[in-house]
Amino acid sequence: MRIQTAGTFLMLFFAAVICGAAELDTPKDQPVEITSTGETRYENGIAFARDNVAIHFGDSDIYADSAQYDSKTHLVSAAGNVRIYRGGKLYTADHGSYNTETKEILADDLRTSSDPYLVAGNSLETFADGHYQVQNGIFTTDDQADPDFHFRARKVRIYENDRVI
């Protein structure tokens, strides 16, 4: 009896996962997969998802409490515990958006790392050429909650493996 109940549970679980997933195509024929444990729906070219949202496309993954994807503008907007993984880097924020076509990120109250330092700030904007800009940022090489050394800046442009302005 217990094995039959477990088997039924697993079949229902996998059916729910499959039903909770939506796959959309981007202009470069790269699928965008959206899954969540809550509601997912698609209205007028915009996919909406809530509760443990996971969005996968190409080499990028986005996780958040809620998100939406506009297939016309190619913009993913995410809110609540946002984590954006792109090209081996992690960006964490309260709110963020990601353009699947240009790969540009806009984020509020963010944290990320740029070897050898850690970065936190009020906002982050990445650009198609690979550099990014942080507003009201804190930079440190000390990986602690209360770093022994850090510096603050109102605006910083970071060019990976090249320079910081």
C-alpha Rg, in Å?
19 Å
* Low-confidence runs of at least 5 consecutive residues: 1-27
The outline comes out as: elongated
Strand content: over 45%
Helices, by number, come to 1
Q: Give the mean pLDDT.
A: 80
Helix content: 10-25%
Termini separation comes to 67 Å
Determine the structural class based on helices, strands and strand pairing: mainly beta
Number of DSSP strand runs: 12
* Helix-strand sequence: HEEEEEEEEEEEE
The quaternary state of the protein chains shown equals: single chain
Largest sheet: 12 strands, antiparallel
Question: Can you give a write-up of this model?
Answer:
Helix content is 11%, strand content 60%. By secondary structure, the chain is mainly beta. Strands 1, 2, 3, 4, 5, 6, 7, 8, 9, 10, 11 and 12 form a twelve-stranded antiparallel β-sheet that branches. The model is unreliable at 1-27 (pLDDT under 50).
Show the helix and strand layout.
Blueprint lengths: L1 H18 L2 E4 L5 E5 L4 E4 L2 E12 L2 E11 L4 E12 L2 E11 L5 E10 L2 E10 L5 E9 L10 E9 L3 E2 L1
Antiparallel strand pairs: 1-2, 2-4, 3-4, 4-5, 5-6, 6-7, 7-8, 8-9, 9-10, 10-11, 11-12
Quick structural overview:
By secondary structure, the chain is mostly beta strands. It contains 1 helix and 12 strands, in the order αββββββββββββ. Strands 1, 2, 3, 4, 5, 6, 7, 8, 9, 10, 11 and 12 form a 12-stranded antiparallel sheet that branches.
